Amino acid sequence: MITLAHISDLHVDGGSRARERVEQVMAYLDAVADSVDALVVTGDLTENGTVGELEEARALLSGRLPAVICPGNHDVVEGRAPFRRVMLGSEGGEKGDPGEAPVNAVHRADGGAVVLCDSTVPSEDGGLLSEETLDWLEDTLADLRQTPVVLGFHHHPVKLHTPYVDHIAMQGADRLSVLLARHPQVAGLLCGHAHTAAATAFAQRPLLVAPGTVSVAPLPWEDAEQVYAAHPPALAFHILDDEGRMTTHFRTAPAGRT
Ligand SMILES: [Fe+2]
Ligand SMILES: [Fe+2]
Fold first, then answer.
1. Which of 22, 99, 131, 240 could cysteine-pair with 92, CB 3.0–4.6 Å?
2. Where is the Calcineurin-like phosphoesterase domain (predicted)?
3. Does residue 89 register a pLDDT over 90?
4. pLDDT band at residue 80, thresholds of 50, 70 and 90?
5. Ligand showing the shortest atom-to-Cα distance for residue 213
C-alpha cells in the first residue's frame, strides 16, 4: 500500500498569496509526513516559469517528503530547460540535447508506484502526450506490470465542464486510452490544471483532479470573486492499496500553522 499527498497549481510568482498558501499546505503535510510516501505535484508550480519563480517553488516544496513533479503549461512558457535545471538539477539528455525533452518521472515505493507524464507543449496552454512520452510510458508500465500504479499528468484528458479550462485540455487522449487498456495495473489517474477538486473517469479508471493550491476556479453558476476569496488551499490524499484500488480523500490545509 502507498499513500500519496497530491497538490497542484501553486502558481508561485514572487507574491505573498501563492507563497503563503503553499506554506500552509506544506506545514500541514509536514505534520503527517510519517504516514505519507511521497508528495505528487501535477504542474503549474509557477506562474511564468522563470528561474526565480522555479527556485522559489523548489524551496517551498522542500520538506520531509520526496517530491514527484511534472510541469504544467505555466512552467514551460520559455521551454522546458529552466524547469529541468531548477527542479531536477539536470541539464537534460545524455546525447547533448538540451533539456527540452519531456520531463517524465517515476517513483517506486513499497507496494506501488507513481508515474508522472509531461503533458505540456512548451509555450502553449493546451496539452498533448508526445510520441516520446507515450513510448516512455509504455516501457515504464511494462516494467511495472506486477505493481499497482497511479498515473498523473497536468492536463485533463476529458471535459470537466469548467468554463476556463475545457478548451485547453489534453488533446489526442484516445492514444492514452488505448495504451491504458494494455495496463490494468494502473489503478487511477491524477491531473491538475483545472483548479478544482473533482472526480471523473477516463479509460475505465477513476480520474481525480487536484484542487488548485493558489485558487479555485469557479463553476458556471458561481461568483468568481467569492470563490477566489472563500476557499483555503487544499490537497488530496490518494491511498493505493494491495488490492489495486485507489481511494481519495480531499482536505483543506488549516490556517495558522506556518
Ligand atoms: Fe494552473
Ligand atoms: Fe495549467
1. 99
2. 3-196
3. no
4. very high
5. 1
